[in-house]
Design goal:
The chain is of the alpha+beta class. The chain has one domain. Helices cover 33% and strands 25% of the residues. The protein is built from 4 helices and 5 strands. A hairpin with a 4-residue loop joins strand 2 and strand 3.
């Protein structure tokens, strides 16, 4: 029997016009402290984003999302925040902000496999159903 560990996650969202509050889910960031896991999965579809918000600079957004991913991964090329311990990086990533890249409130759960759970959350919450 596998041991379940607690985790927290937040949905990563593109909010093209902050004053309108409309958002498109583009990723998930997840932290399971006792498993030593901090993961981020991004599924940014530039064509879908342009259909949602024709004036959105999708190239700039892709760069912002790559930096977000790099910080979650602890890639030191992403700057000093990427060097923080996992828990501090997670809390920095999920901090409220009023920019075009935002995250939802955090949610909690239990998992035996953090990587598989991250993929499942991405599929369920971000990747649109087709067909």
């Amino acid at each position: 029997m596998s041991v379940q560990v607690a985790f927290e996650y937040a949905i990563v969202r593109v909010v093209p016009r902050v004053e309108r509050g409309e958002a498109m889910n583009v990723g998930v960031v997840m932290f399971a402290r006792s498993a030593g896991f901090l993961g981020c999965a991004i599924a940014f579809d530039a064509a879908r984003a342009r259909a949602f918000a024709p004036t959105l600079d999708t190239d700039a957004m892709a760069e912002h999302l790559a930096a977000f991913q790099a910080i979650a991964d602890g890639d030191q090329r992403a700057g000093p925040i990427a060097c923080f311990p996992q828990s501090e990086r997670f809390h920095w990533l999920v901090a409220p902000r009023s920019t075009t890249l935002q995250v939802s409130a955090t949610h909690a759960g239990l998992t035996c496999d953090p990587q598989a759970t991250l993929k499942e959350l991405l599929t369920r919450l971000v990747v649109p159903d087709v067909g």
